[in-house]
Amino acid sequence: MTQPVKVYLDAMTRYADAMQDLGTAFGNTRALLVDADVTEDSFGMLPESREVATVYEQRTTDGLEVLRTGEDVFGELAVAFRQMRDNYQGTDQAAGDRFGGGK
């Protein structure tokens, strides 16, 4: 005999909201980094400074891509959990209606 599956719709909603908040935080962090507007001259005029500026630019570019990916992934997780919650709720309602429990 199998055990019944328990689905906690409120928990799925809270999880989706948390994922959305994380995605938003990634986006906000990315915007702050873009707005920082650190230029090549910020590192000084020595040849060694140019090398540091190049490394900084590459790391910033990589970091911006990671932040964009994080924003997308967590946003998509939020959508997926909301869809699962809605599907469970709809299935439960349809089953209740079919057997007279939903009315």
Describe this structure in words.
The protein has helices at 9-36, 47-98. It has 103 residues and is an all-alpha fold. The mean pLDDT is 89.
Structure keywords:
rod-shaped, single chain, 2 helices, 103 residues, mainly alpha
Count of discrete alpha- or pi-helical segments spanning 4 or more residues: 2
Overall average residue pLDDT: 89
Percent range for β-strand residues? under 5%
The residue fraction in helices comes out at over 70%
Strand count: 0
Rg value:
24 Å
Concise summary:
The protein has helices at residues 9-36, 47-98. The chain is an all-alpha fold and 103 residues long. Helix 1 (9-36) packs antiparallel against helix 2.
Helix and strand arrangement:
Layout: H1 9-36, H2 47-98
